[in-house]
Amino acid sequence: MTFVAPPPAPAPDQASPGQTLSTDEVLRIRNDFPVLHQLVNGHPLAYLDSGATSQNPISVMEAEQEYYEQRNAAVHRGAHTLAFAATEVFEAARATVAAFVGADENEIVWTSNATEGVNLVSYSFSNASLGLGGPAAARFRLSAGDEIVVTEMEHHSNLIPWQQLALRTGSTLRFIPVLPDGTLDLAAAAEILNPRTRLLAVTHASNVVGTINPIEDLVAMAHAVDALVFLDACQSAPHLALDLAALDVDFAVFSGHKMLGPTGIGVLYGKAELLAAMPPFLTGGSMITTVDMQGAEFLAPPQRFEAGTQRISQAIALASAVDYLSHTGMGRIRTREAELGRRLVEGVTAIPGVRLLGPGLGVERIGLAAVDVAGVHAHDVGQFLDEAGIAVRVGHHCAQPLHKKLGVTASTRASTYLYTTDDEVDRFLAVLAEVGPFFGVSR
C-alpha cells in the first residue's frame, strides 16, 4: 500500500439538525483521517466497512497519546498529583459520553466492548437469580415460567448471552420475527410480549439490513407488561442523535470502535435505580468498600461494575471521538448517511442479479446495504471488490439467524460514515455490477 499524506484542514463546522454535510465538508473531514489517504491494489482506498470498525481522526489518536505522555497513572487509587490528574480526565470522559447519550454520569459503566456489557447484565441477572443482591435485586431474578424476548435480527452479541441466561435460569427464550422486507413484525411483538416477559432485548438499528427499529413503540409494549428493555445501540450511537433517557430504555450498550473511537472500550448504560439494585458480575479490586476474609461490601455504581484496572486511555479517546461527532452534528450525520443509504439502495436495485437485503426505497435506513449476488459467494464478491480498492464486509455479520430468515448464508455489506464520499459509493456500485459478468453468472 502507498500512503499519501493529506494536507491539514480545519475541523468541521456545526450546523442545525436536519441539515446535511456538503461535499466540501466531507472532503475536509477526510483530511482528519490519515488511513483513508492510501492506495490499495493500485486504487484509492474506498473504506466501506465502518459498520464493522470505523476509522479514527487524528484528534482521537492524539488524545490517547497525550494521556500516556502527560497523565499516565492509576485512577481512583493514588493520592499523588499525577493520579489525581488521571482520575480527573478519566471521569471527565465519562461525563462527556453520558451527555452525548442523554444519561447521568452514574449511569455510564465502562466495559471493554458492547459484548462485555451485554454479558455483564446477563450474569448480574444470573447472580440475582441465585439470591445475590438481596431484596433489591428481586426484579432481576428469573426462573422457569419467565420469558426473555429477543428479535430475529439481533447480532449474536445480543442473542447468545440471553440464550445462555435462559439455560442457566430455566426461563424461556422467545423471539419477534422479521418480515420479508427486513422490518420487525410489530403485530407479533404485541402478542409475544406478555406478563411472563421479564426482558426484551432489541437492536436499535440492524447491522445487516439497516432497519431503524421503532424503539419507542417496543419500549411502550414491554413496559406495559412490566418487562425491562435492553437496547443494542452499537449501530445507532455512531449515526443517530441518541437520547437514552427519552427513549426510556432500561439498559443499553455501544462500542467505541464503531464511532471513531479506539478498540478496547465499550459503554453500558443502565438507569441509576436499576444499576444500584444489580449485584456485580466481575469482582476484585476497585469495586469494593470493605473486605474481610468472609465477605465484601461493594461500591455504588458505576464503580461496582468496573473491577480491576480501568480502560483509562481508551475512555479518554472515546470522549474525544464523541466531541468530534458532536462538533460535526449528529443531525447532519444522520441526514448525510440517509442520503448515502438511498444512493446505495437505488444503485443496488438497478443491478440485474443483485438482491438487496432489507427495506427498499421509502424506508429510512442507516447508511449501509447488504446484498446477495446470485450465483456468487459473498467472499468472492468481497475479494473482487478488494482488488478494486474497495473494503467491504462479507459473511454472516454475526447475524446467522437473520441471514437464514432472509434465505441466504452470507452477504456482502457496504457501510458508510461521515467521511464517505458519493464517489466511493458510485465506485462500489460500478464494480459490484461487474461481479456477475466476471464470474460468468447468467442473469
TrEMBL record:
Comp. bias intervals (Pro residues): 1-11
Cofactor: pyridoxal 5'-phosphate
Start and end residues of each Aminotransferase class V domain: 47-428
Keyword Transmembrane helix: no
Signal peptide: none
UniProt record, GO biological process: cysteine metabolic process
Region: Disordered, residue numbers: 1-20
MF GO annotations: cysteine desulfurase activity; pyridoxal phosphate binding
Entry EC no(s): 2.8.1.7
Keyword annotations from UniProtKB, A to Z: Pyridoxal phosphate, Transferase
Presence of the UniProt keyword Protein biosynthesis in the record: no
InterPro entries assigned to the protein according to its UniProt record, in alphabetical order: Aminotrans_V_dom, Aminotrans_V_PyrdxlP_BS, Cys_dSase_SufS, PyrdxlP-dep_Trfase, PyrdxlP-dep_Trfase_major, PyrdxlP-dep_Trfase_small
Uppermost EC category: transferase
Catalyzed chemical reaction(s): (sulfur carrier)-H + L-cysteine = (sulfur carrier)-SH + L-alanine
Annotated CDD domains: SufS_like
NCBIfam families per the UniProt record, alphabetical: sufS
Role this protein plays: Catalyzes the removal of elemental sulfur and selenium atoms from L-cysteine, L-cystine, L-selenocysteine, and L-selenocystine to produce L-alanine.
Family listed: Belongs to the class-V pyridoxal-phosphate-dependent aminotransferase family. Csd subfamily.
Official protein name in the record: Cysteine desulfurase
Source species: Cryobacterium lactosi
Lineage, highest ranks first: Bacteria, Bacillati, Actinomycetota, Actinomycetes, Micrococcales
Gene name of the encoded protein: sufS
